[in-house]
């Protein structure tokens, strides 16, 4: 049986990647994060194929802050896709995964000297330079070395994609990138072009997140190509690569309108061809950096239902064994999700409840209003589409160990991140030294 966003087996249980969700919960315990690997691969492939169909030289670079782990880097590499990393920790994880360093883009608005050295040392594919301080640090690091490093300049192209304020990054007042209007960007360009150890391969911009319309990307291409045109005259420089960032929206709830990868890609390619014709510029390669749309829909959070609080004539809380420690998005920016009862997603709806987390914060509500069949303690609840920015933002708040992460593919499950233990929690604590 096939619903639009989940599947059930002959027992009527939710299945993920062909595996019964109740078996996963029994084997690996809850809370548990489960990824359907075939969904991840399909989504990467859909972006790649859309560019191939248009004969456009393109790179799909998975923005790994959405979910970073050795295993996901290995899946992405199997798909011949690139990755974005934003920290030494993500870079280290990619190294441990044997991810080809030439396919790594290093982002961030405050990369440390150690992180930049690590990137240069490991020959990452490209450093996406964000600010003047970084140009300075990188120049100093390169001065004592012989190698050249590929760089891109991150620009803020004055596009604000329609999305939640907390997750906007493309507008002029953003903390990210060089401002184009005030000529900071052209000054940065001059500095990078003058440095013989920096090979500028192109420009980067990222306009926002959870974007559900193509207009923002079209405006982004227009604004970037206007700059490219100007700079091709002022500096006689033309980029090999235009990196348009990520932000492709996904379906969290039935209220979300989503566009297929092909729709985004076609809009981008159409606009790029128009702009290149208009300015008589040669067409750069297009890089995109989807994060959420690669891992979001493929992820499921399994929880065990515990206590229940009824407030007569007001509301009912159903509490699960996880919450803001494994998914802070609802508490952080009112993110919406949908859940199903894993033992019987198709059972008749009985009531609408508030799905509360187990953490000591009133704001720890995973889902504000969820219609559910009758439930009892011990039942497994599955929240859908939790694969992006859930585990990757997980914390040990309340000293709750972070959940395990499991990949399922072709009807088989494999553990990819072990559940934290209480010993893990205290392993870096040091005893208080009493003065005497
Ligand atoms: C976060 C980020 C992305 C990915 O955004 P999604 O909304 O997850 O697709 C891509 N590029 C940059 C530079 C980012 O900071």
UniProtKB/TrEMBL annotation:
| N6-(pyridoxal phosphate)lysine: residues bearing it | 65
**Which residues are responsible for catalysis?**
360 (proton donor)
One GO MF annotation is: diaminopimelate decarboxylase activity
Name the domain of life: Bacteria
Essential cofactor(s): pyridoxal 5'-phosphate
Cite a single Pfam family from the UniProt record.
Orn_Arg_deC_N
Q: What is its EC number?
A: 4.1.1.20
Task: From the record, give the transmembrane residue ranges.
Answer: none
Ordered alphabetically, the record's keywords are: Amino-acid biosynthesis, Decarboxylase, Lyase, Lysine biosynthesis, Pyridoxal phosphate
Which pathway is this protein assigned to? Answer: Amino-acid biosynthesis; L-lysine biosynthesis via DAP pathway; L-lysine from DL-2,6-diaminopimelate: step 1/1
Orn/DAP/Arg decarboxylase 2 N-terminal domain spans which residues? 38-295
Binding sites annotated in the UniProt record for pyridoxal 5'-phosphate? 247, 289-292, 389
Q: Where does substrate bind?
A: 292, 329, 333, 361, 389
| Catalysed reactions, as listed in the record | meso-2,6-diaminopimelate + H(+) = L-lysine + CO2
Q: Which Gene3D superfamilies match?
A: Alanine racemase, Lyase, Ornithine Decarboxylase, Chain A, domain 1
The record, for SUPFAM superfamilies, names: Alanine racemase C-terminal domain-like, PLP-binding barrel
Biological processes annotated in GO: lysine biosynthetic process via diaminopimelate
Question: Record's PANTHER family?
Answer: DIAMINOPIMELATE DECARBOXYLASE (PTHR43727), GROUP IV DECARBOXYLASE (PTHR43727:SF2)
Task: Describe its partners and assembly state.
Answer: Homodimer.
Role, per record: Specifically catalyzes the decarboxylation of meso-diaminopimelate (meso-DAP) to L-lysine.
Q: Which family does it belong to?
A: Belongs to the Orn/Lys/Arg decarboxylase class-II family. LysA subfamily.
What protein name is recorded for this chain?
Diaminopimelate decarboxylase
The protein's organism comes out as: Xylocopilactobacillus apis
